[in-house]
Amino acid sequence: PLSAAQHMGSHGAAYDLLVCLDMEATCDDASPPKVPMDCSEIIEIGVAVVDVATRRELRTARFLVKPETSEVTPFCTKLTGLGPADLADAMSLAQAVTALDDIVQGFGQRSCCAVTHGSWDLELQLPREARSKRVALPEWLLRYVDVRASTRAFLQSAVDPASLSPVVPSTLADLAAAVGAKVPEDIRPHSGIDDARVVSSIAVALLEVGASMPVVDLAGELVSWRQRSETQLCLEGLPFVMLATPLQDWLRRFGGYAAERLEILIEASGRPSGRAVGTFSTHQVACRVREALAGGRVAQPCAAAARPWDPPGRGRIVLLRPLRADDMVLTPRPFPDSVEALELMRSGIYARTMVNTHGWCMCGGMGYYGCQCVSRYTAEATVRPCRFGVSCTRPDCWFAHPPRPYIDAPRILCVER
User: Fold this and answer.
1) Angle at 53 between CA 52 and CA 59, to 5 degrees
2) Within 10 Å of residue 155's Cβ, how many Cβ atoms?
């Protein structure tokens, strides 16, 4: 097992209550920002408690939190609707966490699990800030369901991989539309309480369709990772314009060590997932890197690899954690270390569109993990290069074997044999 994860679905739910959360924090869009991403502070916690059995929303609440070291910028006010005056008499983070826990404890012995949109709330922002402010977190905040990951997994399991759109749902609005969630009216994006209610709507919709909802047990998976003396870590939240050498430099700078091997994880659509796997020399080295980067660090995109039409580069907080089951369904590829290789990858060259005697190929025709891709290649517009290049010896390989692929952004031209 890759993690100490439970699953919830429409039958045999593992928990009685879903505590749907959304947190807003200080931020800025200036360059350089007045509030760096890894120095932000929570200013609002929204919560919506859902009864799993009845699918009803039992309680909603909103807690405003006064920042201690960062300012509420005009950009932050425009985004969240909260200004300095709104937070002047707000509670501290410790008081907000206590008030949140009081709501959960008010339901007595009923078991509960947190639910969020992505990993930022409970794996990055809250743990980092709680650690720096010496705020103890209740045990139930150490396990959660990610509705974004659950929705994407459900969509991929429900359709043919070849028919997946290259644009996977990510925002709350897109996720709600994808599963037909009944979103409350008058919702304001980036309002903690409103977004928490949208998260609850998506969670209920997933329960209704019987989707698997893996529960991430943060403490349990770390214990399991240490017991197995793992040397691999997942790097989650990577900039989409990133090369291997700058990423290794980032690991050395903030983690103290570079990885022995870096592999990027590819979605079924053939596009990068924003995640990678780093394999370190020993388990002790992996532990040191994970501890040094606890709470995440900002990684800047590689400006040299940006395309003219890409939006201005902004850093992203990268989280290092043990591998999970949803990482293993993605396809690993060597992390690109040239602009040409990155452009090839971003074009969708690794889409799973090969057909063989076993059904849909799971390696994209690249020969990973012993997958036998020997049947006719079915795409019409693009001939894809074999990963073995001119040295390929597979007699039934239908891929092109050029000494190098010819790239013409934003699309790949046909490559001749």
Assistant:
1) 55
2) 18
